[in-house]
Specification:
The protein is mostly helical. The protein is 58% helix and 3% strand.
Length: 347
């Protein structure tokens, strides 16, 4: 094979450029701390890194959802705690007013305090979050109220989803669908990756609003012991704790003893609030469990990503030194070879 002067020069230049590129690439990797800085560095690893980053971002979003859900549940728990305190005070007054030592004037004075408790309880049952959404209106978070005036029984209150509730429109349109469903947020990876209106026992979703009829009403209306005396009404008022307080106030305003069964209904309402608060605590624990599981999974994903993307600094420094020496040698050899020619030999 004929070795020409041009071949010597080309080989020398190619060798120098190859080692220069290697040095530049290694300097970039050491400065960023990453082995893969572009898709061309390792196409297979790049695809896996993108997939890992997407999964990590999803876990971070689930954690944010969990924080939002916890804030909503804290608001709900606070409202229920306030209602419970009101019911406890109302029951204390009920037991006192049963005593024959209190006269009509005393009972009417107690009725004034019951009226304040009714307003406080109604406000909590229509409680809203910072975004103005109702907490106890099921899926109808943007409704005007969760508990509204009972159009069939003036002076009493009905849940927005019941047939006695008026939504405030002129034609008195009812909202029966409001009593169904609730709002859910996803706090973890789903087993079947299907978005459903309920959790179906799936721990990946948590309920952040509740049906007020279930929270403040009776699971079975037949369990209510209060007998409502409403001669102007066209039906029976809804069985909920707010109407129990209204019936108590009506009796005390008339100077009468509290109706039979009201003390038991108030106690039942307090027990119901305790059960709901325990259920809310279970949801909060689910959020914590999902968060811990997500963080554990995220650590594993991060370790996998680091193995694919990050640079081994010791190996990188070793390779950089090796390529710098190779570049220096290639440059020295080129300076020797570039002056070699047949004319130099003839001289």
């Amino acid at each position: 094979m004929r070795i020409s002067t041009n071949m010597f020069h080309n080989q020398g230049v190619n060798s120098i450029q190859k080692h220069q590129n290697a040095v530049v690439d290694l300097q970039l990797q050491l400065s960023t701390g990453k082995r893969v800085n572009a898709a061309s560095d390792d196409p297979v690893a790049t695809s896996q890194i993108h997939s890992l980053n997407r999964t990590t971002s999803t876990i971070d979003q689930y954690a944010k959802n969990g924080e939002y859900a916890k804030s909503q549940l804290v608001l709900e728990e606070t409202a229920i705690e306030d209602v419970t305190a009101s019911l406890q005070r109302a029951r204390e007054l009920t037991i006192q007013m049963f005593n024959s030592t209190y006269n009509a004037t005393d009972r009417q004075a107690a009725a004034q305090e019951i009226g304040q408790l009714i307003e406080q309880t109604k406000n909590m049952m229509n409680y809203r979050n910072s975004e103005g959404e109702l907490i106890f209106a099921g899926s109808s978070v943007n409704a005007e109220q969760a508990f509204v005036e009972d159009v069939n029984n003036p002076g009493y209150y009905a849940y927005i989803g019941s047939n006695n509730a008026d939504d405030g429109t002129v034609d008195t349109v009812y909202e029966p669908l409001a009593s169904f469903g609730s709002r859910f947020v996803q706090i973890g990876f789903d087993a079947d990756n299907k978005v459903l209106p309920n959790d179906q026992g799936d721990p990946s979703r948590v309920r952040i609003t509740d049906n007020g009829d279930k929270v403040f009403g009776w699971p079975d209306p037949a369990l209510a012991e209060t007998t409502f005396a409403n001669p102007t009404g066209t039906g029976t008022p809804d069985s909920n704790i707010l109407n129990v307080l209204v019936e108590l106030k009506n009796a005390l305003d008339a100077g009468l003893k509290p109706p039979e069964g009201i003390a038991n209904d108030l106690a039942f309402g307090i027990d119901q609030m305790s059960k709901v608060r325990a259920e809310i605590g279970g949801r909060q624990n689910r959020i914590e469990s999902q968060f811990d599981a997500g963080q554990t999974f995220k650590i594993a994903l991060e370790e996998r990503r680091m193995n694919l993307e990050d640079m081994d600094l010791v190996q990188g420094i070793t390779d950089l030194t090796k390529n710098q020496n190779a570049l220096q040698i290639a440059q020295q050899i080129f300076t020797r070879v570039q002056d070699m020619s047949l004319f130099n030999y003839l001289r």
